């Protein structure tokens, strides 16, 4: 892992208060969107933004640096789970109190972060998980919605974790939770792994409504339903064979 660019000392809205918040963004070939994503976060008052460039072959790292993020780099493409692990470990070393995971493709809204952080503070939760199904205006594609709700049902049956959205990359962790959750899976299976670790470590969690904006770009960049099914099937096999 290489680190490029000076540490960003600009402090955001929550840094000025009692808690220091870091936004962790794994990114792979996102030069078209990453600059807008970072500027949106800075405009909303968040300054500790960490982009993990996961072996991109384009100008993702350069664009992210120019937009004001601290950039960490993987030499090769390892997967979103590996990117999150690298970014979270860096934020912990920087003494983060809260860590928010955020997508690089423009699907997530900076306005969703404040309710997630408020849930950690006001409800004394260790993990706040975003859900696209707690709002009435969800525009989730039909097939994907069925899969995500089905995955949530499996989490409830296997782990006793009561969720409505099984795979949402917008989440907030306390320092305690970030230290407790050990991401092993380099790929997209990390999302299921995080839920399993929440159950194993008995971390207090809460779901918070968040807005997910789908575009042709994000749909093309995002995980396919088939790959999601493969991850879910692998999780089921691992659980049954234990």
> How far apart are the first and last residues' alpha carbons, in Å?
34 Å
**CATH superfamily grouping:** Spore Coat Polysaccharide Biosynthesis Protein SpsA, Chain A
Q: What is the strand arrangement across the widest sheet?
A: 1-4-3-2-5-7-6-8
Mean pLDDT equals 83
Task: Tell me the quaternary state.
Answer: single chain
- Overall strand count: 8
Provide the β-strand percentage band.
15-25%
Question: How many distinct folded domains?
Answer: 1
Task: Write down the secondary-structure element order.
Answer: EEHEHEHEHEHEHHEHH
- CATH architecture descriptor text: Alpha-Beta Complex
Q: Over the alpha carbons, how many angstroms does the gyration radius reach?
A: 17 Å
Write down the CATH topology: Spore Coat Polysaccharide Biosynthesis Protein SpsA, Chain A
Show the helix and strand layout.
Blueprint: E1 2-4, E2 21-27, H1 34-43, E3 49-54, H2 60-67, E4 70-74, H3 80-93, E5 98-101, H4 113-122, E6 127-131, H5 142-159, E7 171-174, H6 175-180, H7 190-200, E8 205-209, H8 216-221, H9 225-241
